[in-house]
Amino acid sequence: MRNHVSTLRGDRRRGDAVTRAARIFPLWPLVLFCAMLPAPSMADENLLMARSPLEFPEAMLTLQESIKAHEYVVARVQRVDIGLTQAGYPSDRYRVVFYGNPQEIRLLTREHKELIPLLPLNFSIFAENGETLVVAMNPSFLSLRFTAPELVTRFARWESDVRSILADVQRGNALD
Description:
globular; alpha+beta; 5 strands; TATA-Binding Protein
């Protein structure tokens, strides 16, 4: 029976392709979500990005300071480059910074359980060719799925904050 079960799950040495992909690229749900956008013109605004001339450590510090200056809390910083490197992909530095307002997240997830997988919000930050890039999903994109007026207003506020945080990182100063 054990051999039959392992055959169904795939060769353990190779690992299941989806499992490997999830380990290598933990943001695959976001990519799939963006791939299902109704119109290409909308895709441009649903993924927000900023390039910074700062080195990765300085850009990471500026990102975290700006998040705090916008009255959010950095919940966790997750390294992603380890999995990429182990899979043979060249990578400088790659992190995902999860953030939010704890009381706001508790309230939202209590009233709208369908938001649980989407919170806390996050930024991806990575080094590429001497620059640092910061990417985030546009929170207003959630308004397509969650249409309650109080949520749409909150998503618009989050979008404003995300754009401001990205501008801070792009300028290299979280206190402007």
